[in-house]
Amino acid sequence: MRNSSKALAAIGLLALLLGVGAETGLAHPLDPALLEIWERGDRTLDVLWRLPALQPIGSVLQPVFPAGCTDISSRSVSSMAQSVIQRWRVDCRPQNLVDRQIGVQGLRERRTDALVRVHLADGQLIQAVLRGDVPNFRVPERSGLSRGCAQLSGSGLWPYPERCRPSVVSARPGTAGLRMAPVA
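^ thats the sequence. predicted structure below, dont judge the formating
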C-alpha cells in the first residue's frame, strides 16, 4: 500500500508541475498576436496590441513602427482570460504610413505569427500576416485599392466596385503586396 501511495503522489506532483509549466511557459501556437492601427487625419496613430495571455518564457513580441514614429501617450493595459491588450497613440508626422514599413519583432523566437490590420485615414483597410521569416511589410500606396477596383469594375468582369476589398497581404518572400478580390 505504501508504494502505491508514493506512486500516486508522484503522479499528482508530475501533473501539477506539467499544469503549472503549461500556464507559465507555453502559448497556444494558433493564437497569433494582433497589431491593429488606425491612422488619423493628423498622421497620428491609435494602436491596439493584443497578445495571448500565455507567453513563452523569455519571448518578447514588440510592434515596430516606421523610423521617426514616437509614442505620444502611455500604454493602457487590460487583461482578459485569454489575452493582454495594450492601447496607445503614436505620432508619425510629418509622413503617413503609405510606403513605410511596419512589423513585429520576436516572431521567429516565439515561433508564431502576427496579424496586422492598418486602417488608413482614407478608410482603406490593409491586412498582413507576418511570420518569423518575414516580420515586416511595406504599407502599399493608397491609389492601388481605388485603381484596382476601377480596373476590375471597368473591365466589365465585376460590375460592383463597392464589393471590392483588399485581400490579405502575404508576408512571404517575393509575394507581399495588395491584391484585389471581389466579395460575393
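The two ends are 68 Å apart (CA to CA).
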